[in-house]
Amino acid sequence: MGKLDGKVAVITGATSGMALAGARLFADEGAHVFITGRRQDALDQAVEQIGRNVTGVQGDSASLDALDRLFDTVKQDKGAIDVLWASAGVGKQNRLGEITEEDFHDAFWLNARGTLFTVQKALPLFNDGGSIFMTGSNASLRGYPNWSVYAGSKAVLPAYARVWVSELRDRKIRVNVLTPGQVASPMLEEVMDEEMKAQFESVIPRREMGRPEEIASAALFLASDDSSYVNGMELVVDGGTTVI
Ligand SMILES: NC(=O)c1ccc[n+]([C@@H]2O[C@H](COP(=O)([O-])OP(=O)(O)OC[C@H]3O[C@@H](n4cnc5c(N)ncnc54)[C@H](OP(=O)(O)O)[C@@H]3O)[C@@H](O)[C@H]2O)c1
User: What family is reported (predicted)?
Assistant: First the structure.
């Protein structure tokens, strides 16, 4: 028996990295998973990789029209949602003094605004007792030089979660934040040079970056009844980086 048998899950930004690993695991655990991403070719590949119990819906999570299309598709195909993992996010380094309006806009438009509307637009389809979680970042918990814009755009998520726990209490919908540390996702591997990698690894107690599968298993915990008494929390999965 799977931990998500019969459940419907929506995961945004899930054609790569941790969310793709999570989508694969959720499908293996019996859920039907809707995944999104902007690039149709990457979406098709991800759907093929997952293989079963999966529907790909192309769209930009920062676009309210695209979010409407996503949830219209879910409504038509399955009628309801049990699990939402709002994972689509962007981040790049910007040193204070050199931050542009565009840098600020890009990070907050998706991470803070897109995530809020993803949750809001999913709500009418949500079954009572469901689980919502959003991908934060431990960049918002530590003073990493050059990451203030990204850190700020992710720091809003635990604040949203605390308020939404109150607002959704009657529907018994749980809201949490899944906060990874440095994870070697394929897209990060592509842009990361040796110096950046060494810098990341130097702050991790085990001196080795996380793997997408290690975040996926924490996501399964938040999605399933294993976390039935976990609500309004930030689950930090960073190998202990934040505490040392
Ligand atoms: N990797 C890390 O070390 C790390 C650490 C902490 C937090 N995070 C957060 O974890 C999440 C996933 O990161 P990752 O490194 O695992 O992913 P990744 O390998 O960089 O992949 C990002 C995924 O999101 C999709 N995406 C990007 N922008 C999107 C948008 N506007 N609308 C819809 N989909 C979008 C991408 O597909 P398309 O490009 O086709 O849209 C891709 O599927 C992000 O929120 C990130 O900020 C990452």
Answer: Belongs to the short-chain dehydrogenases/reductases (SDR) family.
> How confident is the chain (244 residues) per 10-residue block, as mean pLDDT?
98 98 98 98 98 98 98 98 98 95 98 99 98 98 95 98 98 98 89 88 96 98 98 98 96
Query: 178: phi > 0 → left, psi -120 to 50 → alpha, else beta; which?
Result: beta
Beta-carbon contacts of 157 under 8 Å, excluding residues fewer than 6 positions away, are: 111, 112, 115, 134, 135, 136, 177, 234
CA of 153 to the centre of ligand 1 (A): 14
The pTM for the full model equals 0.98
* 229 catalytic residue (yes or no): no
What is the 16 CA–ligand 1 centroid distance (Å)? 7
Annotated active-site residue in 144, 150, 160, 229:
150
Architecture of the structural domain at 8-235 = 3-Layer(aba) Sandwich (3.40)
Residue 239 token pair: 């190998």
Ligand 1 atom closest to Cα of residue 182: 3
